[in-house]
Write a structure and sequence with these properties.
The complex is a heterodimer of chains A (94) and B (347).
Chain A lengths: L6 E7 L7 E7 L3 H12 L7 E6 L4 E2 L5 H5 L23
Antiparallel strand pairs in A: 1-2, 1-3
Chain B lengths: L1 E2 L4 H5 L2 H13 L12 H20 L1 H5 L8 H26 L5 H9 L17 H18 L8 H29 L3 H20 L11 H6 L7 H19 L9 E3 L4 E3 L5 H8 L6 H14 L1 H18 L9 H11 L5
Antiparallel strand pairs in B: 2-3
The chains are: A alpha+beta (94), B mainly alpha (347).
Bound molecules: fe (ii) ion (FE2) (2 copies).
């Protein structure tokens, strides 16, 4: 028989001060079991101090194929980077 | 995951453009990710390979689980349990990776149970003595590491990432095996003999783990082109032999191959011919434990059915009681407090 347990995406904070990072995914019947399974699967060696589990179908993703047009607005704006600006030698703390 | 509708540019891309983009990404050592376009044959090859790999991890739990209750000390027992649990984890990482290619986990398990997908031939040998736990860790996990380290650079992202996790964990598997064999080898005469016997039995099957010789390996060339595979079977096997020879010396044990010797000219070890007939027989299902392994796997799956059903029924009942629109979101409440604590929850 098929179980049809939903898929969950697992995010782990490896230590305080860092953000949660995607660790992988797993199947579980509900959120509580997903958390327990995530602990056993992704933090067996102290890899985490906090876990998020998110139903995989609740994630909306940009399409990888449209990456050029979708991310284009940021490509032609070099003035957003500090290296764009010329500052005379000798000016300090800038 | 929900996907945004394709952009105009994307719909206008012809098959030739898609193929070219894929080829360029692979050539540039970029990773292919789940929702990228990929050739059907690339996808099918990955599904076959990752599924076989996942099956090997979970079937591989059986020969070692066989000794958990008879481990000679609490220390060894705790180590063996941790190792077998790791192998379950490896299976789960890999099933997840396979699922990103559009197959379901149930489907893969059904195929394993029906004998339509394979697992590594090595697990069809029996574990006759405690020393086999050492020989498996040293040689079988050692061969797996030699195979898997290059897979960390596989062109398919999710597979490569799973392999990175796995390789980190495999190192403990190999070292605990080596240490176990060393203890036996330096022990009583009977213990030393037990260690040597285990190495004698596991050496050749470990060499077979690298697959058929290059001139008979049907999928190799294409897999190398796709950068799924980075080195040929024979190259990896040679590498493994060269690594093992000095390690065996340090153990005070010998490898059961009269033709094994250093070849000054090649700068590598020559070794004897592998019995490929034995390998073929095992692949055909005629190994000493094929029947036992698959029967036990099916039984474990069937006997666990009530647990899976009960958990699903419990989740459904709670979802109904909370009157939530979807089955997934209702238990989030309990964890919201914790999320708020984390400071980054978005409600
Ligand atoms: Fe493993
Ligand atoms: Fe292992």
């Amino acid at each position: 028989m098929t179980t049809d347990w939903p898929l969950w995406e697992v995010f782990v904070r490896s230590r305080r001060g860092l953000s949660h990072t995607h660790a992988g995914s797993l199947h579980a019947p509900d959120a509580a079991m997903a958390l327990r399974n995530a602990r056993d699967l992704y933090t067996r060696r102290g890899e985490g101090v906090s876990i998020w589990v998110v139903p995989a179908d609740a994630v909306t993703a940009s399409s990888p194929d449209e990456k050029d047009p979708f991310f284009e607005p940021s490509a032609d704006k070099p003035y957003r980077h500090p290296t764009f600006y010329e500052i005379p030698d000798g000016v300090k703390h800038l | 995951m929900t996907t945004a509708p394709p952009s105009v540019e994307e719909r206008d891309q012809g098959p030739a453009d898609l193929q070219r983009a894929f080829d360029e990404a692979v050539a540039a050592e970029e990773r292919i990710e789940p929702r990228d376009w990929m050739p059907d044959a690339y996808r099918a090859t990955l599904v076959r390979q990752i599924a076989q790999h996942a099956h090997s991890e979970i079937i591989g739990m059986q020969p070692e689980a066989n000794w958990i209750t008879r481990a000679p000390s609490l220390r060894r027992k705790a180590i063996l349990i941790a190792k077998v649990q790791d192998e379950a984890g490896h299976g789960l990482y890999l099933y997840s990776a396979a699922e990103t290619l559009g197959v379901s986990r149930d489907e893969l398990l059904d195929k394993l149970h029906a004998g339509r997908q394979r697992y590594s031939s090595i697990f069809n040998y029996p574990t006759l003595t405690w020393a086999d736990m050492g020989a498996i860790g040293w040689l079988v996990d050692g061969a797996a590491i030699t195979n898997q380290v290059p897979l960390c650079r596989c062109s398919y992202g999710p597979y490569a990432r799973a392999m990175v996790r796995i390789c980190k964990e495999e190192s403990f598997h190999q070292r605990q095996g080596y240490e176990l064999l060393l203890a036996l080898s330096r022990g009583t005469e009977a213990q030393h003999a037990m260690a040597q016997d285990a190495v004698n039995r596991w050496w050749w099957p470990s060499l077979m783990m690298f697959g058929p010789p290059d001139d008979e390996s049907s999928h190799s060339a294409q897999s190398m082109e796709w950068k799924i595979k980075r080195h040929s079977n024979d190259e990896l096997r040679q590498r493994f032999v060269d690594i093992c020879v000095p390690q065996a010396e340090s153990l005070g044990l010998t490898l059961p191959d009269p033709d094994l010797r250093w070849n000054e000219e090649r700068g590598r070890h020559d070794f004897g011919a592998i019995d490929w007939e034995e390998f073929k027989q095992i692949l055909k299902g005629n190994g000493p434990c094929n029947e036992q392994r698959i029967t036990q796997r099916r039984r474990a799956h069937e006997e666990g059915a009530w647990v899976r059903e009960a958990a699903a029924a419990y989740a459904a009942k709670r979802a109904a009681r909370h009157g939530a629109a979807t089955t997934h979101h209702n238990h989030q409440d309990e964890h919201r407090a914790q999320h708020a604590h984390d400071g980054e929850a978005r409600g």
